[in-house]
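Hi R.,

As promised, here are both runs. First protein below:
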Amino acid sequence: MPCVKKKADWALRWIGDKEATYGERVVAFAAVEGIFFSGSFASIFWLKKRGLMPGLTFSNELISRDEGLHCDFACLMFRHLVHKPSEQRVQEIIINAVRIEQEFLTEALPVKLIGMNCALMKQYIEFVADKLMLELRFSKIFKVENPFDFMENISLEGKTNFFEKRVGEYQRMGVMSNSAENSFTLDADF
């Protein structure tokens, strides 16, 4: 699909752009992690809302949480930069990413489903972009509402009740292991 290639080319251009400032590249990274995946995640969470495909929706939760952490890290790093790009430059990068993602979702989701269609998905991408702008400490661009109520509490659903299902939380290395498992020895049998 040409729209997938356009997304990949956009991301690779920013990674390899020697003329771009570090701040611009961090914003582009945040856009890839925060905008380029959000529509796909929303469409799979739409399935979760209907109780469909629990294995896929569980893996989607883990992947979306991981991408969210990457985006949060990029925003945190950006806030600590001394030499940041202007708000206008950041808007240009974000708007460009939004247009590419909207084109992708228009081609990837050409049908109207109950509670989800191309127009709502485009609005959702704009909503996500506005959230990203706020995280970067800039003003919203699109000023739209979240059209998908099921996406409001996604980040809150990550906490798992031990007795309900398998835990999918990140854990600190070594928290669940005994001290013997954390020792280094040179007596391996290989």
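And here is the second one, sequence first, then its structure tokens:
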Amino acid sequence: MNAKKIEGQLVSKISSFFKQNNKARAVLGLSGGIDSAVVLILLVKALGKENVTALILPNTQVTKQENVLDAEELANSHGVKHLVIEIDQFLRPFAALPWEQLKIAKANLNARIRALILYNYANAYNALVAGTGNKSEIYMGYFTKHGDSAADFFPIGDLYKKDVRALAKQIGLSKKFLEKVPSAELWVGQEDEREMGISYDVLDELLPIILKGGRVPQKLRDAAEKISATMKETEHKRKMPPILKL
């Protein structure tokens, strides 16, 4: 991968996308992780810092303070307007619902509340919401439906996790972002690779082969079968809801 070339292409494509849609401003959720950090920098390069807003939306019961501080520092270093809004206050009313709030429901609620806030801001300021998902996550269905999948465009959605890391180095992102253990922070101690049951290194090696219908190395066939099964199970998350035609 030619990271410098990819950077130029993405900056150009973001700029063109906004012109085509007659928009100038972008808003994104800035988590303190590598994906949203890369997206923020690309947006600044494409649109100018004055046209980018970062919303930092921690759940104080789950989000590490380190990530909040890193997100603020990144926004400040690029001159980007940012707001820290604790989402706890919006989560609490759901406890009044007359059914049990299961772990998965609570986890997904974090992402969906954030999406509501991002779109509320976008409506208020005539902005587009930038998604921060990458290709590896998208094909594994590793996102919350109507949560972090709710966006107007995905700048790094065609980049595998390994490519995002390479791009992060190219654009000069701090080493600490590269060294963080990937986590959506939907609950305490949650880690992407542990939850998916596969490392990004193996996932990024196999996904291109699977998508092209290529030959999988014998030693990785079990992993490939797991990936293929997950892709099938989560296909509905990558499509619009079906219309049951008469």
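A quick note on the second one: The chain has eleven helices and four strands. Let me know what you think.

Best,
J.
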